Amino acid sequence: MPEWSSLLTDAALKSSALLILALAAARLMQRRSAGARHLVWTAAASAVLALPFLACSLPVLHVPAADRLAALAPSITFRADANADPATATSVPAAAPRPALTARVFWRQNAAAYITLTWAAGAFLSVGQLLLAAFLLARRRNQAPEHPQAAEARTLARAFRIEHPVEILEAPADSMPLACGLLRPAIFLPANAAEWSAQRREMVMLHELAHVRRGDIATQLIARLALSLYWWNPLAWMAWREFLKERERAADDLVLLAGTRASDYAGHLLEIARAMQPSRSLASSAVAMARRSQLEGRLLAILDSRRNRRAAPRVSVLAAAAAAVVLVAPFAAMRAQDAAPSAKPAQDLVKLGDLARKEHRDADAAAIYTQAIAALGTDPAIAKPLMSRGILLFSQKKYEEAEQDFQRAQAADPAHAVRPLAWLGLAESKQEAHAAAAESYFRQAITAAPQHSTDTAMATDLYAYFLRQQQRFTEAEDMRQQAQALRKELAAPYLRTPGPGVFRMGGGIAAPKLIAKKEPSYTEEARVAKYQGTVILYVEVAPDGLAHNIQVVQAIGMGLDEEAVSAVSQWRFEPGTKDGIPVPVAATIEVNFRLL
Question: How confident is the model at residue 81 (pLDDT cuts 50, 70, 90)?
Fold first, then answer.
């Protein structure tokens, strides 16, 4: 869904720009003929209709753009439990993890999906209405007899230089004359048309034949489909009204060029608009002679002898539509990218890639990481975007490509080779018959890590997980205990006496009570690696009910320590008290990260 929402957003912006350009062009062409302005709106409809299809099928053409401002929105994550009582150093066992979402967060996460589905629903309803009208029109056409005035109409058609056959069919009395038929054109005349004067019949027939000669049935289909796709956009409705207005005026111009007196034609048109009933159910699939909403402007245009009435050849309509699609193709393929890589700090690019990753825009994230890699060249900092892209490839099960990035990251920054080596082990463990290579990488990661470090514990934990997968349970348990013992050893220096004015619980000091908490989020790296563990934090709960001086006592890495600190800093407590008075109280909190 994110890919579709991104595509539709891109189409919405570009289509709006094209419609504004078409409006400006039409305004500048006020002295040109209605047929010329109708060409502009036909080209615009063809272009905006083709936009999303071209964007899907053409290779992306990147163009520089200014820095983008991205709003940080929460993403759906695995829940990490933090059920430890802040009043004790012993944690409560974690409950089974489940997604923790508020209504606001849920809306933010799914807004793009809802907007996309609403857009699609409106488009399907509009196209459905078009198809229903086409079905009703086809049924009426199959049942309608030939009109008694058919021979007269055919004679006019030949005089009007229409060579292909046009059916002249009978419609109910007092119904609005209309033209239809994409491949086999037909004209519906009301049954009582024989009662009209010969002049009125001729003018009505000439008007409908003008629509056939101009190819208005085909262009109406294009414009109607464009309106169906962008039904939510006021600019699309404006373009549709302008399209209909110029089409009718262009048809009127052809009738007048055939020698019809303007005053007579205006009078007959006014009477037909007043007396005839348009068929709303067929309006989207047929070209009706008159719409009351456009009548005043049409009459003024007909009676204006200074008007340019030059007709545009039918081939020019098709050429304009085709040229619009061709010319809009590069515009459809364009995608904005940040300015040249060297002009933007690589760390900002990595953050932008991480944001795209959180929003599940994996293709964008990969492109941004690649841009950061290109910007850094041989700088050791290249290891970070290489690791980010490698983890993304790992999540997509592209293990061999991921290994290449991990190997490059290891070579770029040998002093921090633990993570690349550990991930190489994970990548090898996912491939059949690569267990020996995976074990070798895990052992190298443990060896490469500085002695007595969090990285050593992390690599040891991952090795233990691999051994369990290999059903080497005794060795796995030994590795797990080694990692646990190392973390306890690393935690010992932090278990200190609180600072001045900070109390420990007991001896008349009441413990603070947790009253509201924010669940910490799993990092993408830890989720993909299926990494679990417990972060221990030292905090001082102040009288304001907030945790201050938060320190990581036991770290587990992969970004989970930072997530734990971020979450606990937003917790709310009922402060501890001494003799009933709120005082700062020291506590230890365990934050358990567990995957389903």
Answer: very low
